[in-house]
Amino acid sequence: MSTTKLTRRTVLASAAAMPLAAAAGSPVLAAAEMMGATLPKFKRIKLGGFEVTTLLAGTRTVPDPQTIFGMNASEEEFAEASAANMIPTDKAQFFFTPTVVNTGSELILFDTGLSGPGTTAALEAAGYSADQIDKVVITHMHGDHIGGLMTEGSPTFGNAAYMTGAVEFDAWSGMDNEGFNTKVRPLAEQMTMLDDGGSVASGITAMAAFGHTPGHMAYMLESDGSQLVIAADFANHYVWSLGYPDWEVRFDMDKSAAAATRRRLLDMMAADKLPFIGYHMPFPAIGFVRPRDSGFEYEAASYQFVMD
Fold it and tell me: What is the pTM of this model?
């Protein structure tokens, strides 16, 4: 009687042969079409007594990111920073993230995306409708923040009151800017102007964050002892802006003031361990910062806000 000695090598060889046999004589049962990459449309968290929902109102891939970020950095510095964070140097992904805050008595929308349809689609995915919005707060007047204010010549959020920074409104009203003229100016009489420290609602306070635009504003949310900063565009990229706050950004209208604002807000959020929502951070755009070398490091939120 003969015996076969089983060794690790023979077991592995037999296992490797099985898929070949199956392929030769059996139908493939798991065939499916490629679906393409996807992103969620919204993310809702609890902040004290508030519910805060970030909306993905749009995204696009932008080529040649060093024409936007790190304009005063060398090509070698930019490539080294990108490689260290495992991101390409030839393209970047932009995200556009309005935020809805439900205070329990009001539904407040911060910024309106590139277009009315894009933002209302994300709102509806999150369970809201445009006519439920009580207040619209505009952090600054760039087109990707005011684009959704009007749809086909009519206000997208027909029942809302409007709020924005006084310095920002005054600066843009003196410019001949088509976006401002067509999206913001028609609503001017309905707008409340805010200064640094102004109140949007109980627990929501304006914070001057000038530089990106003349009167760019961030907003502090405070509820039941919890805080979060709606930071808008004080920093536009989670690596190239946070890691290197002094790198110039093409869209910053006053580059030195914008860099000073970045450091001030990043220092504050890192020291106080404050979460923030960055309009262009990787969706769902909620995270923290901590010091690293001469700059800062982005830490995406995980389950800090969803535990009962």
Answer: 0.90
